[in-house]
Amino acid sequence: MPTYKLTYFPVRALGEPIRFLLSYAEIPFEDDRFDREDWPKIKPTTPYGQVPVLEVDGKKVAQSSAISRYLAKQCGLAGKDDWEALLIDATVDTIHDVRAKLAAFHYEEDETYKATKRKVADEVVPFYLERLDAQVKDNGGYFVGGALSWADLTFVAILDYLNFMNGSDLIEKYENLKQLKEKVLNVPAIKTWKMPTYKLTYFNITGLAEPIRYILHQSGIKFEDRRLTFEEWPQYKNDMPLGQVPVLEIDGKPHPQSRAVCRLLARQNNLAGSSNEESYTIDAVVDTIDDLRQAISQYHWEKEPAAKEKLKANVDTKLPFILQKLNARVQKEGGYFVNGKLSWADLFYTAVSEMFSGLLETDVNKDYPELKKLVEKVRSLPNIKAYLESRPKTAF
Ligand SMILES: N[C@@H](CCC(=O)N[C@@H](CS)C(=O)NCC(=O)O)C(=O)O
């Protein structure tokens, strides 16, 4: 297999269709995104003073459409005959015409010209988009021949850039283009490649991070599970947005607050309900469980005997009251907390009830058959089961 290196600015724009095609073709490549200040140094080394440049076994080639067409031919995305290849080329050229209209005003510095060029784009771009949308409708959900081609990949890959220049979502009104976008982003090789990187920082205990770990594992998301020792913590504390953990970094951006993180991941992975009302019910269940978590952890960490006694009495009242309500809910809702289907409330409870049992040194679910069944069901979900078998053994 030849070696491939793609050189481009650290943005998607014209590099992205090539990245989509290399990913679709499962061709490993070096994704060289250079810093802008290095451009004057790089420019003279490129064939025509422009990027993207693809190097194949060290041979440099420029022009993004030519490169895309070359790669598409190698992975069956260039049409089944010359006629289809022509229609694909015509579509890609049209997409680049749209790009040129948007770029004309976006990069214009003179405000008067900018306004005139924006006006032109506002008239011409919808004209093109209507036709592109109809083209997808008439061709079985793709631009050409009822099958995926590099025109589809190019459109979806470059759309973020077009939207950025336009200042809003260009395809909001175009149902066929919206469906095309979903289809392309769900092509397995593209989906995997586009997946963000995740890094979770917490201590080497279950605690507040465990529901996040459950949701990530259940959703099949790979992540770095960074577990700090308590001795290491002081040197990391100041780097955390709120001086606390867990913190989930997504593509390097830190996200604090464990339940907000759970909710974000749950929404992205269909675990947060399918209506506002369902999402609310899930949140309410989680908040109820968290009331209990707070009572148990306050009691556990309290050192002063009299205060501890009081907190123990609080747990002794709250625990049966809340668990009995939760048990009844699972019975009524068909084996899960909400509407007979798995949600992040089920994952949350399974993760934290295990901690309750650890802290209180008794199986808290033992007198609540519905909760016990729910926890067993969640623990035997294939991804969760695999995680439980491989995770570090911790005190709680
Ligand atoms: N509401 C926050 C609470 C976070 C929290 O209390 N984290 C504790 C660990 S469980 C922590 O970072 N403690 C160390 C510190 O505050 O220095 C969340 O849910 O993420």
Automatic annotation (TrEMBL):
<dbReference type="InterPro" id="IPR036249">
    <property type="entry name" value="Thioredoxin-like_sf"/>
</dbReference>
<feature type="domain" description="GST C-terminal">
    <location>
        <begin position="275"/>
        <end position="396"/>
    </location>
</feature>
<protein>
    <recommendedName>
        <fullName>glutathione transferase</fullName>
        <ecNumber>2.5.1.18</ecNumber>
    </recommendedName>
</protein>
<dbReference type="Pfam" id="PF14497">
    <property type="entry name" value="GST_C_3"/>
</dbReference>
<dbReference type="Pfam" id="PF02798">
    <property type="entry name" value="GST_N"/>
</dbReference>
<dbReference type="InterPro" id="IPR050213">
    <property type="entry name" value="GST_superfamily"/>
</dbReference>
<feature type="domain" description="GST N-terminal">
    <location>
        <begin position="2"/>
        <end position="79"/>
    </location>
</feature>
<feature type="domain" description="GST C-terminal">
    <location>
        <begin position="81"/>
        <end position="208"/>
    </location>
</feature>
<dbReference type="InterPro" id="IPR040079">
    <property type="entry name" value="Glutathione_S-Trfase"/>
</dbReference>
<comment type="subunit">
    <text>Homodimer.</text>
</comment>
<dbReference type="GO" id="GO:0004364">
    <property type="term" value="F:glutathione transferase activity"/>
</dbReference>
<keyword id="KW-0808">Transferase</keyword>
<dbReference type="InterPro" id="IPR036282">
    <property type="entry name" value="Glutathione-S-Trfase_C_sf"/>
</dbReference>
<dbReference type="GO" id="GO:0006749">
    <property type="term" value="P:glutathione metabolic process"/>
</dbReference>
<dbReference type="GO" id="GO:0004602">
    <property type="term" value="F:glutathione peroxidase activity"/>
</dbReference>
<dbReference type="InterPro" id="IPR004046">
    <property type="entry name" value="GST_C"/>
</dbReference>
<dbReference type="InterPro" id="IPR004045">
    <property type="entry name" value="Glutathione_S-Trfase_N"/>
</dbReference>
<comment type="similarity">
    <text>Belongs to the GST superfamily. Sigma family.</text>
</comment>
<dbReference type="InterPro" id="IPR010987">
    <property type="entry name" value="Glutathione-S-Trfase_C-like"/>
</dbReference>
<feature type="domain" description="GST N-terminal">
    <location>
        <begin position="196"/>
        <end position="273"/>
    </location>
</feature>
